[in-house]
Every structure is written in C-alpha cells, then in structure tokens.
C-alpha cells in the first residue's frame, strides 16, 4: 500500500513538473535571440582577447547606440495589445502563471519615450568603455582631447547619448559637445542611400507555412476562435523583445505566447529584412560601407606609415552603419543566399542579425605592432573575426592593406547618387535589362 502511494505521488510530481516546464514563467534559459533588438550581453564575447606581446598603435571602433525604447509606431501597436489582454479567456492553454502575467501586464511607454536610450543602453556603453580602457592601456593612457581621440556621432539623440556614456566611463570625463555628422558626411549618414525597394523574399516568407504556423500557434495558445493578423503577432513579439532587452533577467508577459520555433521563425523574418536592406541580398549594399571602410584603412595607413593620427577613433551610429561595414569587409557571408524558401536549410547561417547587430553592436579594428611587424585584428561585438582569404585573426597589416586598397579605390565603391559611378551603374543595369528583353522578344516572336 505504501509503495502504491509513493508511486502515485511520484507520478503526480512528475506530471506537475512537466506542466510547469511548459510555463515560460519557469524557463530558466529563455530564447535570447531577437534580431536587431537582442541584448548585447547575450551575444558579445565571453572572454577578453588581447595580444600580450604586441603594442597597440590604434583602436578604431564603429558602435551602434545602446538599448533604446521603441519608436512611436511600435509604442502605439504595443499599447493596443491591451485589447487582447482584456479579452483573454479560460479557453487559453497558457499555464496559470503566464495567464496571470498577461492579465496584469502594464505598458507605460508613451510617445515622449520614443527612441530614447534607456537604463540598459547607458549600461551597454558604459561597460564597453570600461572594458576597452582596461584591455587597451596603450590607447587610453592619456586624458581625453579631440586631437588624440577622434569622436563622431549620428545626430540622433540615442547615438549622442551613447557616445557620452562611452567617453564618460573610458576617460572619466563629461564630454557635452559630441561632434555630430553633417549632411555631406557619408561615413555615417547613409540612410538616404539605402535600397528601400519592396523586399519580395520577405513578402513571400510572410505567406509561407512557417509564418502561418506561428499565426495559428499563437492564436491557439491564447484560446481565440479566429487567427490573429501577423501585425498583431508582431506587436506581441516587439513587446516581448523590447522588454527582454532592457531587463535581461525578465520574463515578459507576451513572450509566453511564443515557442522557441516561433521565435526562430520571427528571427529569420527579421534576418531576411536586413539581408536585402543592408546585407548581401543586394550587391549595391556593399557600396554603403565604402566610406566607413575607407576611413578605417586610411587611419591605419597613416598611423602605420607616419605614427601620426589619433590613438582612438570612435564612431556612434545605427544598425545600418554596422551592417554596411561588416558587408564591405566581407564578414558573415553565406555561400547560399537567404530566401523565403530555405528557412530550414539556413539555421546555421552566418547572417544572423542577432549576432551581427544587437543593441550596442560594434565593429572594431585594432592596429598592433608585434616584434616590429604591423598587424590587425577585426572584432564584431568583441569577438575576433577570421579574414577568410588568409585564414588569420591577427593578420599582417600589409596583407590587409593590399586586400582592401583595390576595393576602396575603385570608382564603383561609392553610393553617391550624383556620382558618375552611380549613374553609370544605373545606366548599365537598364541597358542590360533592355538587352535581355530584346533577346526574349527575338526568340519568342521570330
């Protein structure tokens, strides 16, 4: 009898445990990858990489702003989720804790909060400044001044604030007059040149079975008798990922409606967006990174040849800046393009915006002198990158210079719509299209 009772209790315990395992509330390691809204801590280097036998000559850094609040439109869409919170019924299959979390969910942001750097964003850049100061003593061994340290920021408040907190922690100084880009400076001011045509692959993916399964799954777990629209599900996703990014240990209410598979699909949806907007999905995007990569190469060339120039070069911008520089340098390039049809085959893709441009993402290059030889290491989010052509992470500067000089000096390495290279490229594309149509016409009608 006692044995039977013990067995029954064990079965009840295991059943209760299995039920609690379905609760997001009890998930000790929730899925952390939310594309460009990923928290920096989830993907940045987990160890410090230094070259103890080398002297650091120059540190060049391009940083995205730290964690921010959503934009106005997203704030409005998240606010509208109150309708679904209030209509939640017992038909929902959410566990009790997740059900209550949604029922008691409160969203306090308003239009005045749009795009502002938040407390986690301040911590992102402050922590980065302290780490770099500790790692590169050769660079941060002088008081801050604009001649020794070159700083430039986007004119957006979140980027200016990011620069301020970075400099404050790295140099223990309040720099209130952060230099801002002007309209003619194409190193950071590239948004007007982005290729913003319709993303056909993204459109097709949103009609795919993968996205439809997310729609059905989320609608079902909420206990609804009809499917939600993708826009409503996207608002739930945004609420989930913005809250996770500002509070790393949180269990945001709306995250509970998504399975890990759902979140992987939504991450791929975001990756498709950036792949064609800023990435390898359009060869034109490689031009967007030309001015910033030229700046990197020219700074290193000047320092290696003359020992002149700033000790540190620090730029503060946006995800598009980081993406464009990564693409121009050739990192995270997949051999197979991201398409609406190959989600399952691209799970191990290199192009993951969660890893490439989370909040506070950065691309750094460090110029060293190692036993009289100049060498370079590139970092993405403090992780050293391999230059595939040479298979090195600490690469001879001469090889890097020879690799990129022909690229950045080529007239096609531009995206200025008024430049002859841009006009020629556009004309050639039109001529090629006309040529193809003429061939088609000839074979079809002859």
UniProtKB/TrEMBL annotation:
One of its GO terms (cellular component) is plasma membrane. PANTHER family: MULTIPLE INOSITOL POLYPHOSPHATE PHOSPHATASE 1, MULTIPLE INOSITOL POLYPHOSPHATE PHOSPHATASE-RELATED. Its main location: membrane. Disulfide bonds join 54-370, 240-255. GO terms for molecular function: acid phosphatase activity; bisphosphoglycerate 3-phosphatase activity; inositol phosphate phosphatase activity. Keywords: Cell membrane, Disulfide bond, Glycoprotein, Hydrolase, Membrane, Signal, Transmembrane, Transmembrane helix. This is Multiple inositol polyphosphate phosphatase 1. It catalyses: 1D-myo-inositol 1,2,4,5,6-pentakisphosphate + H2O = 1D-myo-inositol 1,2,5,6-tetrakisphosphate + phosphate; 1D-myo-inositol hexakisphosphate + H2O = 1D-myo-inositol 1,2,4,5,6-pentakisphosphate + phosphate; (2R)-2,3-bisphosphoglycerate + H2O = (2R)-2-phosphoglycerate + phosphate; 1D-myo-inositol 1,2,5,6-tetrakisphosphate + H2O = 1D-myo-inositol 1,2,6-trisphosphate + phosphate. It comes from the Eukaryota. It is an enzyme of class 3 (hydrolase). Its EC number is 3.1.3.62, 3.1.3.80. Residues 1-18 form the signal peptide. The chain crosses the membrane at residues 428-445. Belongs to the histidine acid phosphatase family. MINPP1 subfamily. The keyword Zinc does not apply. The keyword Zinc does not apply. It is found in: Cell membrane. InterPro entries: His_Pase_clade-2, His_PPase_superfam, Histidine_acid_Pase_euk.
């Amino acid at each position: 009898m006692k044995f039977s009772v013990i067995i029954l209790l064990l079965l009840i315990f295991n059943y209760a445990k299995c039920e609690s395992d379905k609760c997001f509330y009890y998930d000790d390691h929730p899925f952390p990858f939310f594309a460009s809204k990923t928290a920096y801590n989830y993907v940045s280097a987990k160890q410090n990489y230094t070259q103890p036998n080398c002297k650091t000559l120059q540190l060049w850094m391009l940083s995205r702003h730290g964690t921010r609040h959503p934009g106005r439109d997203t704030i409005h869409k998240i606010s509208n989720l109150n309708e679904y919170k209030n209509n939640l019924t017992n038909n929902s299959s959410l566990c009790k804790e997740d059900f209550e979390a949604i029922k008691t969910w409160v969203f306090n942001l308003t239009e005045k909060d749009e795009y502002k750097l938040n407390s986690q964003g301040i911590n992102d850049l402050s922590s980065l400044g302290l780490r770099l100061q500790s790692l590169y003593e050769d660079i941060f061994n002088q008081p801050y001044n604009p001649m020794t340290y070159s700083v430039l920021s986007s004119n957006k408040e979140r980027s200016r604030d990011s620069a301020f907190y970075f400099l404050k922690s790295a140099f223990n100084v309040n720099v209130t007059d952060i230099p801002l880009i002007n309209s003619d400076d194409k190193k950071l001011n590239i948004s007007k040149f982005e290729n913003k045509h319709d993303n056909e692959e993204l459109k097709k993916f949103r009609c795919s079975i993968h996205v439809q399964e997310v729609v059905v799954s989320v609608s079902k777990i909420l206990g609804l008798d009809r499917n939600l629209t993708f826009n409503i599900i996207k608002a739930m996703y945004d609420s989930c990922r913005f809250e996770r990014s500002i509070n790393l240990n949180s269990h945001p209410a709306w995250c509970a409606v998504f399975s890990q598979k759902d979140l992987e699909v939504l991450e791929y949806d975001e990756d498709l967006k950036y792949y064609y907007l800023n990435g390898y999905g359009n060869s034109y995007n490689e031009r967007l990174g030309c001015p910033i990569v030229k700046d990197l190469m020219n700074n290193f060339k000047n320092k290696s040849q003359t020992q002149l120039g700033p000790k540190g070069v620090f730029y503060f911008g946006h995800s598009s800046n980081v993406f464009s520089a990564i693409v121009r340098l050739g990192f995270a390039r997949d051999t197979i393009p991201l398409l609406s049809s190959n989600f399952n085959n691209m799970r191990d893709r290199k192009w993951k915006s969660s890893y490439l441009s989370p909040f506070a993402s950065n691309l750094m290059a460090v110029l060293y002198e190692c036993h009289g030889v100049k060498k370079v290491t590139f970092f993405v989010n403090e992780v050293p990158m391999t230059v595939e052509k040479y298979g090195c992470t600490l690469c001879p500067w001469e090889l890097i210079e020879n690799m990129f000089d022909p690229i950045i000096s080529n007239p096609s390495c531009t995206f200025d719509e008024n430049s002859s290279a841009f006009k020629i490229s556009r004309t050639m594309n039109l001529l090629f299209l006309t040529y193809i149509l003429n061939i088609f016409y000839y074979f079809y009608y002859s």
